[in-house]
Amino acid sequence: MEVRSGVGSDPPGVRTPRRGYRGRHRAIRRTPLLVVVGLTLAIAIVVRSFFLEPFSIPSESMQPGLQPGDRVLVTKFGPLRHFQRGDVVVFDGTSTFGAIRQPDGNGLGALARRLTEFVAGRTGESDYVKRVVGVGGDRVRCCTSDGRLQVNGTAVAEPYLYPGDVASRQKFDVVVPAGRVWLMGDHRSRSADSRSHLAAPGGGTVAEGDVIGPVAVRIWPLNRIGGLDPAPALRSVNDPVPDPPKASRART
Q1: Is 130 a catalytic residue?
Q2: What are the pLDDT digits (tens) for 3-52?
Q3: CB under 8 Å to 181, separation ≥6 — which residues?
């Protein structure tokens, strides 16, 4: 008579789940979540790279409008990246103002860094935030007899300056080269800006290509969300008048 051990057999009417079924079921349920997370990260990276990028304000140089620790969004996309006199911009000062930014590297470390910067804002050692005071061709000088900044012969009112500050304690008279900008902080007494680099290549001006973009909006802290104070006086300054062509002497 054959005796069966019963090991591996099921009682009548009872089915034992196959091994691995639950694991596969969990994996199937996790797949849509991973897809959503991946798409979200991809969209965030695309937006940050081509459209809007957050930055963290590192210093007091743009007080009172921007405080240390404020977060702002900078416009980087094509026509929206256009900036003019009076705009507050973020720029890479590597070749003019500051130290070389460390490379992002590769792999998960670089991805984690980019995600952190997307949420908290980039604070690169060579990223600066200043106000555009002069563009290519402008003559910027300080100061008039009543202590005001002058652009293309027009004295400029600057209500955005830090209370108690003057336009500049340092005298200067510069013509901004084509394709470059003259930048100054609103907290003039605490700002190392174009004035501080007059002896550097470019005479303290920054190449337009180094401007990352204009500040679109402040997003942090929550009780101060919104735009920055405009600079109507700078916006209304007339463009420089080009020098008349020199008459050539006709040969006889």
Answers
A1: yes
A2: 444 445 555 555 555 555 455 555 555 567 766 666 666 555 555 555 68
A3: 89, 132, 134, 135, 136, 205, 206, 208, 211
Catalytic pick among 5, 9, 56, 61: 61
Where are the strands (E) in 26-179, listed by range?
52-56, 71-75, 88-92, 127-134, 139-142, 149-151, 154-156, 172-175
Q: Has 246 been annotated as catalytic? A: no
- Residue type at position 42: A
CATH class for the domain made up of 32-235: mainly beta
Q: What angle do CA 216, 111, 101 make, to 5 degrees?
A: 65
The model carries a pTM of 0.72
Question: By CB neighbour count within 10 A (0-12 exposed, 13-18 middle, 19+ buried), where does 132 fall?
Answer: buried
| Residue of 49, 76, 126, 130 with catalytic role | 130
Query: How confident is the model over 76-121, as pLDDT tens digits?
Result: 866 655 789 999 999 998 888 865 344 445 555 555 555 555 554 5
pLDDT tens per residue across span 116-143:
555 545 555 689 999 999 999 999 999 9
For the chain, the domains span 32-235
Across 237-244, average pLDDT = 79
Give residue-wise pLDDT tens across range 183-217: 999 999 999 999 999 998 899 999 999 999 999 99
Beta bridge mates, 226: 218
* DSSP string across 6-60: -TTPPPTT--PPPTTHHHHHHHHHHHHHHHHHHHHHHHHHHHHHHTEEEEE--SS
C-alpha dist (Å) from residue 250 to 55, 244, 245, 247: 59, 18, 15, 9
